[in-house]
Amino acid sequence: MSKISPCLWFDGEAEEAAKFYVSLLPDSRIEKVQKNTVDGPSGKAGTVLVVEFTLAGQRFMALNGGMRFEYTHAVSFKIDCADQAEVDRLWDALSSGGGQVERCGWLKDRFGVSWQIVPTALVQYLGGSDPAGAQRAMAAMLQMVKLDIAALQRAYEGKSAAGSVAEGTASSGAAAGCR
């Protein structure tokens, strides 16, 4: 077990968030729910203070800290996805219920936590042995919202993307960067 585990700060939503997150990935579970023993800034006695949970084998802590602090892009959680079906499933789940989709595979879930939903194949297209193909794949990725493995492959291989501003991609007038 790692000595380091991320602590996510919530305002009364720690248990709801932890339950949501563990429902998404294998090797995930709630480990412990600790309640407030007295009334305090984090809530009344008997309400949830801390939830310890494991997400895809990584330990986390969710804390109901009292007041809401906004998360920034400076810290995000990247999920490596084996295929497009996994990208689509996680993208849809994490962006549902008030989440915000962003560019280049980034989104904020309904709790404001930033996630990167990244196909494992992205590395082979952005870092492949063909520099021109890698440039084309990067240019294609910079236009996407949800990452599309087939479109990245077509770009890498230099194949036409005939009419391919597909669902999950930004308009061609979008800025050239992800942030």
List keywords for this structure.
179 residues, alpha/beta, Signal recognition particle alu RNA binding heterodimer, srp9/1, 2,3-Dihydroxybiphenyl 1,2-Dioxygenase, domain 1, 2 domains, 4-stranded mixed beta sheet, 5 helices, 8 strands
Please provide a written account of the structure.
The chain is built from five helices and eight strands. A hairpin with a 4-residue loop joins β6 (100-101) and β7. The longest helix is centred in the C-terminal third of the chain and has 13 residues, at 131-143. A four-stranded mixed beta sheet has the order 1-4-3-2, with helices on one face. With 179 residues, it is α/β, with parallel strands linked by helices. The protein starts with 6 loop residues before the first strand and ends in a 22-residue tail after the last helix. The chain is elongated, with a radius of gyration of 19 Å. α4 (131-143) runs antiparallel to α5 (149-157).
How do the helices and strands line up, and which of them pair or pack?
Elements: E1 7-10, H1 14-22, E2 29-35, E3 48-55, E4 58-64, E5 77-81, H2 84-95, E6 100-101, E7 106-108, E8 114-119, H3 122-126, H4 131-143, H5 149-157
Parallel strand pairs: 1-4, 5-8
Antiparallel strand pairs: 2-3, 3-4, 6-7, 7-8
Helix pairs in contact: 4-5
